[in-house]
Amino acid sequence: MSTFLGMPPFPEAAKRAVADSQLRHNLAGATATIRRKRASVVGELDDWAELREAGAAIKAHTLSHLDTYLERFEAAVTAAGGVVHWARDAEEANRIVVDLVRATGEREVVKVKSMATQEIELNEALGDAGISAWETDLAELIVQLGNDAPSHILVPAIHRNRAEVREIFRREMGGAGVPAPDDLTDEPARLADVARRHLREKFLRAKVAVSGVNFAVADTGTLVVVESEGNGRMCLTLPETLISVVGIEKLVPSWRDLEVFLQLLPRSSTGERMNPYTSTWTGVTPGDGPQSFHVVLLDNGRTNALADEVGRQALRCIRCSACLNVCPVYERTGGHAYGSVYPGPIGAVLTPQLRGTASPVDQALPYASSLCGACYDVCPVAIDIPDLLVHLRTRVVEEHHGVRSRPLDLLMGLASWVLGDARRLAAVQRVASWSRRFIGRRGTIGRLPAPLSRWTDARDAPAPARESFRAWWERTRGGKQP
């Protein structure tokens, strides 16, 4: 499977994505459907606003006392017969998982859909160690067989239509296991049936499974996965060894807290009142399910985000993807343009905190937004993403202040000088109105010469008004200034 390493910054990647009409068509149809379903089921609850506040409060409280809850969780898992491993970064987490799989003597694993394992590129690390990792979520299977990368948090193959999925299955399934029949059509039921047959062989053969989690309960050491297909249930019960990679922000204090999140998550993610499959497991039960259970607690930049008083709210994210489905930028560019396993608005604020802003890709992400605020309106845990985007833009400027920011500094200095004096502002407004005949003949500003062309080439801005408000006021009010 290809990775996000080496991808271009968002402006370059987005330009290519916007030119792909098939991609835009696929995204528009899928996101519109999910938005309608979400709005319908959220509208059924009179206390949705209170649930949202409760979810945000639980997450904020847990993050403020994360050290205490992590220790409590470790003690509970250990008491229940599990083993807890601590991983500072992706390299350490991958090494732990590879060593655990090697210790079983197995050369393959089945996987439950997991953003954390994609984040650390676990599949690639297992492959380098000679271990095959098979994705069992239908959309993840499509992405893996297509040698592709996920483009959505919840529906990673959202950029593919069913005709493309049919071709991927026919071309690739035979090399990875049970092949697709030659007469396969693009009917959804047929595609799902072929995927089920292909995966069933792997479920029944696998001795080791790797999962992520949606929630981890500190008081009891319980892990929770919610899903819609049943593949998670198969991975969590059939293998002899289960390894769960858990971001440290996934903790909630008690079992009762799940009451809030199991209402917020399915409605925000799939537009369902309840997930078809909710699997919970606590340690090891003799004779029932995996008899060897390991939890890998993953940091990988999360404590750095936690140290940022503004940025830490991004760690409240429950990976519902509601912000992606309402984002006008994501709908036109898709997830690949973000250069991260976390696309869309939440990726634009989470990824630069987890990875830092050293690379051009990560520096560009906070600017991949129009700041319309739709993402905040739908977030089930009330993450103020627009505020975070502005905060991270400031951070990018402060951390990388240099030659690239000097033109902007000059422009801002000029703007301050103009706006600081009424006479200077009036003079500029007169010049702008006069220039309309040259730069705005069609009602919008045309292409300006370099370097201003970089701005005009990327947006349609209205031409200056024929008469400024100041000039109108002077003409109609006898020269009196407002």
UniProtKB/TrEMBL annotation:
<dbReference type="Pfam" id="PF11870">
    <property type="entry name" value="LutB_C"/>
</dbReference>
<keyword id="KW-0813">Transport</keyword>
<dbReference type="InterPro" id="IPR009051">
    <property type="entry name" value="Helical_ferredxn"/>
</dbReference>
<feature type="domain" description="Lactate utilization protein B C-terminal">
    <location>
        <begin position="396"/>
        <end position="475"/>
    </location>
</feature>
<feature type="domain" description="LUD">
    <location>
        <begin position="70"/>
        <end position="297"/>
    </location>
</feature>
<dbReference type="InterPro" id="IPR024185">
    <property type="entry name" value="FTHF_cligase-like_sf"/>
</dbReference>
<dbReference type="InterPro" id="IPR017896">
    <property type="entry name" value="4Fe4S_Fe-S-bd"/>
</dbReference>
<dbReference type="InterPro" id="IPR003741">
    <property type="entry name" value="LUD_dom"/>
</dbReference>
<dbReference type="InterPro" id="IPR024569">
    <property type="entry name" value="LutB_C"/>
</dbReference>
<keyword id="KW-0408">Iron</keyword>
<dbReference type="GO" id="GO:0006089">
    <property type="term" value="P:lactate metabolic process"/>
</dbReference>
<feature type="domain" description="4Fe-4S ferredoxin-type">
    <location>
        <begin position="314"/>
        <end position="383"/>
    </location>
</feature>
<keyword id="KW-0677">Repeat</keyword>
<protein>
    <submittedName>
        <fullName>Iron-sulfur cluster binding protein</fullName>
    </submittedName>
</protein>
<dbReference type="GO" id="GO:0046872">
    <property type="term" value="F:metal ion binding"/>
</dbReference>
<keyword id="KW-0249">Electron transport</keyword>
<dbReference type="Pfam" id="PF13183">
    <property type="entry name" value="Fer4_8"/>
</dbReference>
<keyword id="KW-0411">Iron-sulfur</keyword>
<keyword id="KW-0004">4Fe-4S</keyword>
<dbReference type="InterPro" id="IPR017900">
    <property type="entry name" value="4Fe4S_Fe_S_CS"/>
</dbReference>
<keyword id="KW-0479">Metal-binding</keyword>
<dbReference type="GO" id="GO:0051539">
    <property type="term" value="F:4 iron, 4 sulfur cluster binding"/>
</dbReference>
<dbReference type="InterPro" id="IPR004452">
    <property type="entry name" value="LutB/LldF"/>
</dbReference>
<dbReference type="Pfam" id="PF02589">
    <property type="entry name" value="LUD_dom"/>
</dbReference>
<dbReference type="InterPro" id="IPR037171">
    <property type="entry name" value="NagB/RpiA_transferase-like"/>
</dbReference>
